[in-house]
Amino acid sequence: MGRVTLLLADNEPTRRGMRMALRGEADICAEADNAEQAIRAAKREQPEVCLVGRSITGDGIQATRGICRAAPKAAVVLIADEIDTDDLLDAVRAGAVGYIAAHDLHAAGLRRIVRAAADSEAIVPRSTS
């Protein structure tokens, strides 16, 4: 499989870290600061994978739902501050294929997550609160 096209929807510092971690591994086709921008970018770009911050302005769950409608082939992974079972279920109901905790991310892990999402694998935490 070639490089993955990716949409990043989170705050700028988090996106900067993701860009650095994914350098050479993915083609970032768009970035967004809020849910509305993320949905528009997904519709326009039709990325393979979308990494969406749970706490972005406009709500990460709403962004996930809108992205899944706008780009139905995109795999959405929601990045939460903390793992919460109810929130995970809401993310899956909204169409997410993955749900991870931000504090668990590191460069190699993020690359594996993006590749797994592009390969249509589900990404869920080993444990929830």
Textual characterization of the structure:
The radius of gyration is 13 Å and the shape is globular. The protein has helices spanning about 10-20, 35-45, 60-70, 85-95, 105-120, and strands at about 5-10, 25-30, 50-55, 75-80, 100. The relative contact order is 0.18. It has one domain: Rossmann fold (3-Layer(aba) Sandwich). The chain has a five-stranded parallel sheet with strand order 2-1-3-4-5, with helices on both faces. It is of the alpha/beta class and about 130 residues long.
Short description:
It contains 5 helices and 5 strands.
* CATH C-level category: Alpha Beta
Per the CATH scheme, the topology name is Rossmann fold
| Percent range of helical residues | 40-55%
Main structural class: alpha/beta
Radius of gyration: 13 Å
SS strand fraction: 15-25%
Determine the N-to-C terminus distance.
35 Å
The CATH architecture can be named as 3-Layer(aba) Sandwich
**CATH homologous superfamily heading:** Response regulator
Can you summarize the main beta sheet?
Answer: 5 strands, parallel
- Give the H and E element order: EHEHEHEHEH
Instruction: Identify low-pLDDT runs.
Output: none
Mean pLDDT: 93
> How many extended strands?
5
> In total, how many domains does the architecture comprise?
1
